[in-house]
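Summary for the steering committee. The consortium agreed at its last meeting that each partner would contribute one worked example illustrating the joint modelling workflow. Our contribution is presented below. We chose a case with several input lines so that the handling of multiple components could be demonstrated. No manual editing was applied between input and output; the record is shown as generated.
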Amino acid sequence: MLLHYIASDHRYISGLSAYFDAQGCKLVDYEPERLKDGSFILLIFSPVRCGSVRVSLERVWKKGMELENREAILLNAGFEEAQETNYFDLLNPPANWSDFIALAKPAKLLWEPVYTGGMKMEDKLARFFKGHGAESLTDELYVIRRKTASLFRAMDKYGLPYEVAAAEAFETDNVWRHWEVLKSRWSHYFPLFFYLPFSGQMKKIDASIKQIDPFFRSEGKNGDLFIQLECHQIVEYIHETLFTIEKSYVKGNI
Amino acid sequence: MDQSNSKTLVPQRIMIIVWKWKNSIVENDGKWRTNHKLQTEDCIYCLSDKEFFSTRSEKILKIASECAPNAQVYIFWHRTSSYDSKSVGEILRKLKADQPEQKAECFLFGQGSDFIYIGINEKGLLSPDGAGGEGCFGGIRNNEPIEVVVNEEERIIHYLHFESIWNYYSHLFKARIFDLKEDFLLHFYYWWLRDEAVNPLLLTDSLKTSEDLYRRLKAFAHGLSEEDHLKIKDEITEAKAQRDENKINELFKRHNDLYVMDNCLPNLQSIYGAEVANAYLQLAQLIKENILDVPVISAKQIRPSEKLKDIRLQFKNLLHTMPEEAYY
Amino acid sequence: MSKAIYKILVVDDEPEFHKDLRLALRQGYVFEGALNPSEMHKKLAASDNYDLILLDLALDGKDSAIGLNLIPDLVKNFPEIPIIVVTIEDKISVAVEALKKGANDYLHKKELDFDLWDEKFRDAIETRVLKKENTELKRQVKTYKEQISQEYPFIGESPQTQEIKRTLRIVSEDPNMTVLLTGETGVGKEVAARYLHSQCVRKNSPFVGVNLSAIDKNMLESELFGHKKGSFTNAEYDREGYFRQADTGILMLDEIGDINTDIQIKLLRFLETRLIRPIGWDKDVQLDVQIVTATHRNLQKEVQAGNFREDLYQRLKAMVIEIPALRSRKDDIPLIIRHYLRQQGQEEGLIPNAVMKILMDYVWPGNIRELVNTVRSMMMRRKILGRNIIDPECLPKEIQEFIPGTSFQSQGDNSPQLFDIKMDDRPVDEQKAIVELTRIEAAFKKHSGSGAKKQVASELEYDKEGKSDNLNYRITSFYKQFPHLFSAFPVISSAYKKYIH
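What follows is the complete predicted structure of the assembly.
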C-alpha cells in the first residue's frame, strides 16, 4: 500500500519506518500530481510546524480532497490521544493497518478529523481573506489592484502616457505603503501555506510578488517596469488566484 | 477580538506596561484608552520603570483596585529593568490577594525581541528606538512609520494594536506548553518505538543533544537558575560582539521561550488557580524524576513507552485545564 | 439618446477611490466627489443635473446602514437621477436591500472590472433617459389621443344624438360586439366609432380606421391582413396589416359594402374564428380585435343583388346603429359650428343668428363633412369680402339659394318626384348634382328666350368672362354622370336638348 505523507519533521518517518514496513506500506513524500489518483491516501503528521507555529491542517485538507478527489482517504497522525477512524495515535498505532484503512472514510463523507491542538488553519485562512483588521491581505491588495487597474486602463484604453497617468495615480504615496504592508503580511502567512493543498498556487503568488516588487520599490518612477513586469496583469493574477482559493476553501465552508 | 464582528463584551481588559517611557506618556496616571467601539473600558497604564519595585507594585495594586472586579490584567515588565521571575510571582500573588476575582498575568519583555514590539509585530505597541532612548508608542518598521496613537490629546491608541498584543499573550503559555509537549514527545518517539526498558540516564543524555529542548524543559520544571540567567547574558554579549544579526534574533527567540517557561507557574496559578498549578507541578515532577533529575548512581530502568504515555497524559491534564486554545 | 459626457456624483469616504475612478473612466464622464453625506447634500443642492449618483454604502468604512439610509431621500428628492450603490460586503442581502430602497443597481467595490462599471453606469443612465423619454412619449400619446377625441368629438345635444351616444355607451360594455354603423356619407360614422372606442375597455388600445373604398382592390387583402416579404411580386418587405395593428383594439372598416367576395370570406372567417392568415404565412394568427363596420349602402339590397354575402351580413348586423343625417338633427348644427370655430381660434359671434338659421335650414346632403367644409369656406370668403362677420354672401351659392322645404320636397308639377327615391341612397356627388341642377332649373325658369343660357350663367356666376361654356360644361358633365336625373329637370333638358337625349 502506498501512503503519501506530509510531515514537518523527519523523526516521525524515521521512527515509523519499521512499523510501516511490517504493515506492508510504503511511505512517500506527498506528490501533488498524484492527488487525483484512484487509491490516493494521505497521512498528515499533525500538527505540522510552519515557522514558529504548529498548525493543524486536516480540515483544510479534507476540503481540498472533497474538491479534487472525493474518493481519496485522509488520515492524520499525532500525539493527541484518540481512537477514531482516519486518526493514527502515534503512541498507540493500529495493530493492523489494513483493517484500519478498511474502516477509514473517504473525503466525500461527512466526518470531522481529530483536532491535534495546533493553530486551526481554517480559522487562519478565514482571517487572511476576511478583508478587515491586522491580518488580512485583501485590503492591501485591493488598494494596489485599484491603482494598477486604473493606471493600466488609462494607458491601454485611452492611450495616456505612463508619466501622465502615473502622476495622477500616484499623487499620494499610499500605494507604496500598502505594497510594503502586503509584502510584510504575505511573508508572515506564506510559511503557513507550505503544506496546504494549494501550496503550489501560493508559491506562484510568492514568485509573482517578487517579480513585480522592483516596480513598487521604485515607487513608480520606472514606468518601463510597469509594462515589462506586467504589473497590472500580475496583480490581477494574484487576486484571481486568491479569490479562487477563498471561494473553494473559505466561503465553501470548511 | 475583531470589533467588526463582536457582539458580546468580554470583561474589562487592562494592560500595565512598565518601561522606560518618555515623561509625556506617563502623565495623568499614564492612562491611555483605545478606540474600540464596544470595549470602551479597555485601557493601558504606562508606568515608569525608574521607581523601586515596591513603589511600582503599590501603583499596580492601586490600578487594579480601581478596575472592574472581574477585570483581566496583563502586566508587561521590562526585563532589563531588573525585574525577574521572582518579581513576577510576587506581584501576581499580591494582586490575587487584593483582587481575587481578577485574572492577572505578568510577562517580561525586552531587547526588542518580543511580540509587543513593532519590530516583531506590525501591530505591536512599542518601539525600542524611542526618541532620546525614551520609549513611546509606535515607531519605524521596515523603514515605514507605524502609528499607534490615534489621538494624542485624548490619549487614545488604535484598538487593533491592543487586540493584537492581547490575543497573542492570552494564548502564550498554553502555546508554549503545547509546543513543549510536541517537541518532547517527538524527541523521545524513537525511544518509545524501541519499547524496551532502558536506563533513564540514556534519556537524559539524549535530551541534552537537543539543547533548546533541554533548556526549555529545565526552565519549565525548575525555573531559570542564576547560572541560566548568566548564560543568557553571555550568549547575547557574544553574539553582539560578532555582530551576527541572525544569531542575535535566534537567541532572542530562544531566550523568550525560556523566560516564558520560567514565568509559567506563577502566571498559571494566578489565572487558573490551584488545580492548574497542581497539574503543572505533577507534570514537572514526572519530568524531573524520569528525565531531568535522574540520580546518576541508583537510576532504575524504565520503559520509555510507558513513561512517555504517562507524561503525555500529564501534559494533556495540564493543557485541558487551560480553557483557551493554544493558538488563535 | 447618448450624451457625449455624463456627470456623476461619487459619494465615498476614500479620496483615493475618487481619484482612481477618474483615471480609469476618464472619457465619457465628469466626476464630482463628496466624502460624506453632508458634502453630498451640498453638491446636490448646488446642482441637480447629475446623470448618476455612485454611492458607497459604508461611508465610514464599516457600516453599510449609513449609505442605505440615504437612498430613500435621494430617490424621493432626485427621482431623475439613477443611483448605483457600491458595497464592500459580500452579503447579497445588502445589495438587495439597496435595490428595494430604490437604487438602480449595485457594484461590488472589489470587483475592479472598469469595463463593467462603465457598462453599468451607461445602462443606468440611459435606462433612466429612456424611461423619461417613454414617459414623455406616453404623455404625448395621451395628449394626441385627447386631441384626436377633440378632433373627432361627438358633438351634439339633440335628442337623436343623445340617443345615439346612449346606445354607443351601452354597446361599449361588450368589447367583442361587432357593430355596423349606417348612415349617409359624412354623417359622422367614424366619430361614432371613435366615441364607442373612448367609452369601452379598449380605449387604451389602438383605434385603426380604414376606408376600404380608398384602397386599391388588388392590395386590399394585403393591406388588411398583412403579408410576408416576397409572398408576391413587389412584396419587398413584411407588412403587418391593419388587423394586426388593431390587435386588442378596434378596427373600423368604412365602406364595408365595397369589398369583394374574397375579402368578405376572410372577414367572415375572422368574425367566426378570430383568426387571420397573412399572405405568405403558413399559419394563422389569433387576434383580439373588435370590428366596427360602416356603410352608406343598403347592405340588405346588396345581399339581394348578390353583391354581399348573406352570412357575413348576418354577422355584421349583430348591432346596427343608424347615424341620422344632419338634417334630422338640426339642433346640433350650431354646436358643431361653434366647436369648429373654437378649434380654429375663432369667435363664435362671427355667425349671426340669421345666417345660422339659413345653415340650419339647409339639407346638408354631405352632412357634417359638408358642414365643416362649408364653415371653412365661409371663413375664407369673409376674409376675401372683407367682412367683419359672416353674412349670407359668405355662404356657398347652393346654400344661399336653397329654399327651405322646396328642393327636397314635391315641386307640385307632374315632373317625376326625385323624392320618391330617398336622397339617403344617393352618392354625395349625385346629391350635389341634384342640388346644383335644381338651382339651374330654377334659374332657367326665370329666364327664357335666346339669351336664357347667358342670363342663367351670369346669374349663377358660371360665366365670369362673358361666355356660357362653363354652364354648358356643367350641364353636359352632369348628364354624362347622372343621365337618369334629367327627367326631373325638364327646362334644362329642353334648353340642352342638343346634348340631352
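Residues 406-421 of chain C have pLDDT under 50 and may be disordered. The radius of gyration of chain C is 34 Å.
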